[in-house]
Design a protein that fits this description.
176 residues, alpha+beta, Alpha-Beta Plaits, SH3 type barrels, 2 domains, 5-stranded antiparallel sheet, 4 helices, 18% helix, 39% strand
C-alpha cells in the first residue's frame, strides 16, 4: 500500500514502468486509484479515420508510465493489469534521475505538442540531413547544452569538428 507517513515518503523513488501497448492511461488510472503518484505526460495529436478526424491525447513516451513507490514494496505495481515490468538491471529496479523526473513533470504540466526525436549519444554515428553539410556522416564528438552537437567528420582521411544543429542530424548505424 502507498505510504502514509512522511518517514515512509522519504524511501520513495520514481520508476519507469513498461506497460502493454496502448494501456498507459488504464494503468495510470488504476495506480492512482491504488493511491500512487503517477506521471504520464500526454500530447494532443490529430488522428484521421476514414470517416472523421479527431484530436486525441497520446502518451509522449508510448509504453511507459512513471510512478513513485518504495522499491521494496513493488508487488502492488506488478500485479496491476497491463503492467509488464519495472525498468532496471536484472532484478534490481532503477529509479529515475531527479533531473529526468523534473523534465517529465514539466512536460505533463505544459500539455504542449511534442514530436519524438532520436536520442543521440557521444560516440554515435549520425548523418547530417539538412543544411550545408547535408549528406555527410560523422561521429558525435560532444553533446553540448542547448540544441547543438559537435560532429567529427572524416574528409580526405582527416577529421574536422563542426557544430551543427541537433535538428539537422539523425542517428545511423555506420557511415554511409
Amino acid at each position: 500500500m502507498p505510504p502514509t507517513t512522511t518517514q515512509d515518503h522519504e524511501s520513495l523513488n520514481w520508476f519507469a514502468i513498461y506497460v502493454q501497448a496502448r494501456h498507459e492511461k488504464v494503468v495510470a488510472s488504476t495506480l492512482r486509484t491504488k493511491g500512487f503518484d503517477i506521471c504520464l505526460p500526454l500530447s494532443k495529436t490529430q488522428r484521421k479515420w476514414s470517416d472523421r478526424r479527431k484530436e486525441v491525447e497520446e502518451p509522449i513516451f508510448p509504453g511507459y508510465v512513471f510512478c513513485e513507490f518504495d522499491s521494496e514494496v513493488r508487488t502492488p505495481i506488478l500485479r496491476t493489469a497491463g503492467v509488464v515490468q519495472i525498468l532496471g538491471v536484472g532484478k534490481q529496479v532503477t529509479p529515475l534521475e531527479t533531473i529526468e523526473l523534473n523534465a517529465l513533470k514539466a512536460l505533463e504540466r505544459a500539455q504542449t505538442p511534442v514530436e519524438p526525436w532520436p536520442f543521440i549519444n557521444k560516440g554515435q554515428w549520425v548523418r547530417v540531413e539538412a543544411g550545408p553539410l547535408a549528406g555527410l556522416s560523422g561521429v558525435v564528438a560532444e553533446c553540448k547544452s542547448g540544441l547543438r552537437v559537435v560532429v567529427s567528420i572524416s574528409l580526405l582521411q582527416r577529421s574536422v569538428a563542426v557544430e551543427v544543429n541537433r535538428s539537422q542530424v539523425h542517428p545511423t548505424d555506420a557511415p554511409i
